[in-house]
Amino acid sequence: MKLKHPIIFLILLLASCAPAPATVLSASSTLTVEPASPTDSIPSTFTPLPPPAIVTPPNGSWQIQYAGNINTDLNVDIYNLDLFDTDPATIADLHARGIFVMCYFSAGSFEDWRPDIIDFPIEVLGKNYEGWPGEKWLDIRKMDLLAPIMSARLDLASQKECDGVDPDNVHGFANDTGFPLTYEDQLQYNIWLAESAHARGLSIGLKNDSEQIPDLLPYFDWQLHEECFEYGECELLLPFIEAGKPVFNIEYTLVPSDFCPQSNEMGLNSIRKNLKLDAFIEACK
Hints:
TIM Barrel
């Protein structure tokens, strides 16, 4: 049989043998890209930020004053002042003279004259602190309630540029607080305080609590004790001295001649103060 249109047939036959045209993506076309490996976005080198520098107080002359008009004119190496009551300008002036500033607050008791009293839930308040009107022991086991309050106080110390903090009443387990606090409860709380202070670049002193010194020595930078000679507790403080960490001691009733010679021999940094911690001071060094 003969084809009626041989030329047309030949063209169709050649077209069927030609390769398919390449695909061209228009501007509106979607191009699928495989997701990058999680490691693709990580830099080849990573340098973590260094921890804040902790400045330890010198084992030098010092003054502690919370009551009356603060006398900042003393020629001393260290001032221990109230965290809430001390103006940042005072701290700045002391720093300009090269003076180390410790900032005091109570970490184990509630004081009804502080500006943050509204933050304390009723369930953390225990028995009255005997001899100190307006003060109550805290239930340090309730870390979920106390940690935000104490963190805010440490933040305030950092904002005011204190060099270190002196948290008081951190030995509730040895007192009649109204709560069944244990040795381990106190360790956990005190270690948290120390680590939280260090995270903000603040040095921290262990206030009294001599019974727990063997366990807490690695976490605290110095010791501040009250009446170690009056109560025969000075030997308990020696691990701090042996570790090269200063020990500051306050006597209230003994006269300097009764404790200064022994204090100097032991390497303690002792002073005599009035109990109300006004400007009066008699130093052993």
